[in-house]
Amino acid sequence: MTATPGTTGLILDEPLLWERGRSGRCGASLPPADVPESPLDPALCGEGPSFPDLSEVDLVRHFTRLSTWNFGVDTGFYPLGSCTMKYNPKTHERQAALAGFAAAHPLLPESLCQGALELIWALERDLAEITGMDAVSLQPAAGAHGELAGMLVIHACHRHHGAARSRILIPDTAHGTNPASAALCGYEPVAVASGPQGVLRPEDVAALMDEETAGIMITNPNTLGLFETQIQQIAAIVHAKGGLVYCDGANMNAVMGIVDMKAIGVDVIHLNLHKTFATPHGGGGPGSGPICVTAELAPFLPVPRVVRQGDGLRLAHAAERPLSIGRMGAFHGHFGVMVRAYSYIRSMGAEGLRRASTLAVLNANYLRCRLKDLFHLPYDRPCMHECVFSDRHQAPQHVTTLDMAKRLMDHGFHPPTIYFPLVVPGAIMIEPTETESKEDLDRFVAAMAAIAAEAGQDPETVRTAPHRTKVRRLDEVRAARKPCLAG
Amino acid sequence: MKEIEALQLPEDLRYAADHEWLRPGDPARIGISDYAQDQLGDIVFVELPAVGRRLERGEEFGTVESVKAVSSLYMPVGGEVVAVNTGLEAAPEKVNADPYGDGWMVEVKVTDPAQIEALMDRAAYFKSLAG
């Protein structure tokens, strides 16, 4: 076993807060009441929830100790495919904490928040430049919300032209949220099978595309980590029938500033600032899912829009944007996330972003080549920012993808995404991101090689992993079938 | 995961390419094959249609959720749902333990018996799995 950060030595045990609490302890001292007591209507009174009595230090130690069980990108390598768990530079936090941003109220008059409006305006322009699109809305709160906003824009455009359509094409290599977002917008998702090379074939799209179909939702690069090489021809087929092309840009980290999305036929693309633009992710969110559109679709973007007027900026509302789909949220989106993304873009610069994408692709291809003799690689061709293996070589030993993912924890790595995409049975989806050094990648390869060897020599150890973690294998079946949701 | 040869594939059933089985009769009973339950792994939730619904062949009649993924269930034939296995709500593991018995899913009044003939028999289904 290699040296494993985080799984040797001191593992802190910690009871539940209810077990820690002692009657009469208190973490706050309240001033004496300065108004007379007034009894409540007894009908409104009850037992109240059972909360433990705790001191401040009880509480601080409890959560600090729990936090040592966590594994994040600041702890180690986190190759969770499709999630782009890249390192989040700490300077972003400094910018986001600037009082003019952090303390700005969303209802401030425009004259008192010109800096915040300027940041929204500039970030929209930057994202337009990076994707090649014409106009951007930062309002959607996260990726799937961006997908919904994009679908609403497409729907509004078709309706404006007098023909609301009912169906939308979605390849089997698209992100899992795509059919849900389309269905929420009222569209019937129609599945398109990808071809033998793992990418869409124009003839398969042509066979399904008609005047009742609003367009296609295509993830590019797709969830196999492959670039949709026929995208221009596919876009032409969709456009010829009056349809629109939606691109799920969750995998944009492979192509920042490299692919001109408008030039390849995309009409709407959403971005995940919490993936591609290095803002906190998962438990550290929230997310942000801007949509970028062509000039033709710009009138349909959510309101309010930040517009330039004279030397300043102001908000344009529905009255002057009659075609807008309306608001996607109460205010302007997750502004703190936008500050971090803007900080990332300005600190990287155009060349830096291109280089980040180039290195993300290089790292993924390095892992693909180093691991393909150990694990089955269903689509053996150069990949983009992630690569997908399967457990086929380990099947004779009855060692599964889940077993190997669990065993990786013993080596001190976060497991990759497993059993997704669905087009690869037993999928192991690895996305290293650009921020990993060759030494880290080599350590990961060594761990994967050790697991592959162990699957042959000592499969039981792999099947019963993890062995060195705080808790052993959890009973996820029982947790799903008989959930216990109360303390 | 089971070897193809180890799969239980009863002779008296018909099979669809999407791994549903159908036991001919009036009504006909439908479930998912031993191969399907084995591939899905531990099933934690089964969603079935309302009794009385009419569904076309190939139309989705429900979903089955395992710890790995959620998958759609497709009608091997068109017909009206006359019964659903409500026991799966509390005990979805029956699909894993007994896919052709207690793990059955729906019973349908088949619209066109010719659609049953179009389904695979055991030998053809086995061949499709062995690929």
Outline the structure in words.
The complex is a heterodimer of chains A (487) and B (131). Chain A is an alpha/beta fold. Chain A is built from 15 helices and twelve strands. Chain A has helices at residues 17-20, 56-67, 91-96, 99-102, 114-131, 143-160, 177-184, 202-208, 231-240, 273-276, 335-371, 401-410, 438-457, 459-463, 476-481; strands spanning 135-137, 167-171, 188-192, 213-219, 244-248, 268-270, 291-293, 305-309, 312-316, 387-390, 417-418, 427-430. In chain A, the strands form three sheets. In chain A, strands 1-7-6-5-4-2-3 form a seven-stranded mixed sheet, with helices on both faces. In chain A, strand 4, helix 9 and strand 5 (244-248) form a beta-alpha-beta unit. Helices cover 21% and strands 31% of the residues of chain B. Chain B has helices at residues 34-40, 87-90, 94-97, 114-117, 122-130; strands at 14-15, 20-23, 28-32, 43-47, 54-55, 60-66, 70-74, 79-84, 106-110. Chain B has five helices and nine strands, in the order E-E-E-H-E-E-E-E-E-H-H-E-H-H. The interface between A and B is small, with 12 and 11 residues.
Please supply descriptive tags for the structure shown above.
heterodimer, A: 487 residues, alpha/beta, Aspartate Aminotransferase, domain 2, Aspartate Aminotransferase, domain 1, 3-stranded antiparallel sheet, 15 helices, B: 131 residues, OB fold (Dihydrolipoamide Acetyltransferase, E2P), 9 strands
